Amino acid sequence: MDWCRPEEPARRTNTDGHQEPRMPIVTIQQGPREVEQKRELVERVTAAFVEALACPPESVLVWIQEYPAENWGKAGKLTADR
Q1: Per-residue pLDDT at 5
Q2: Conformation bin of residue 56: beta by default, left when phi > 0, alpha when psi is -120 to 50
Q3: Residue range 30-57: average pLDDT?
Q4: Tens digit of pLDDT for each residue in 23-33?
Q5: What proportion of the chain, given as a percentage, has pLDDT over 90?
Q6: DSSP for residue 39
Q7: Is the pLDDT of residue 53 over 70?
Q8: What is the enclosing helix (H) or strand (E) of 36?
Q9: Could you tell me if 79 and 67 are in contact, meaning their C-beta atoms sit under 8 angstroms apart?
């Protein structure tokens, strides 16, 4: 299926010349959160894409990648060591 604003082309041509549907895919990388927080996050992100791109909510894919504190750092320190 093709999802985009009516004034935009329904498909775009990628670098190898093939046509692709314009379906929004969002990836969120974060530390672990409660399922209720993730549920609300997905709902709000989807709503923002629906409003900005005039696409149906069914076309918006949201991926959440969670990383435990021992798998990322900031300012030269593991988050688990803070």
Answers
A1: 52
A2: beta
A3: 96
A4: 899 999 999 99
A5: 68
A6: H
A7: yes
A8: helix 35-53
A9: no
Provide the whole-model pTM. Answer: 0.70
Q: Which of 79, 68, 61, 80 is nearest to 29 (CA)?
A: 68
Cα separations (Å) of 61 from 21, 28, 77? 13, 11, 33
The one-letter code for the residue type at 36 is E
Residue with tokens 């949201």: 62
What is d(CA 25, CA 71) in angstroms, rounded to the nearest whole number? 24
Taking the alpha carbons of 48, 52, 58, 63 in that order, is the dihedral positive or negative? negative
Report how far residue 69's alpha carbon sits from residue 61's, in angstroms, rounded to the nearest whole number. 26
Q: What is the pLDDT of residue 21?
A: 60
In three-state secondary structure terms, 61 is strand
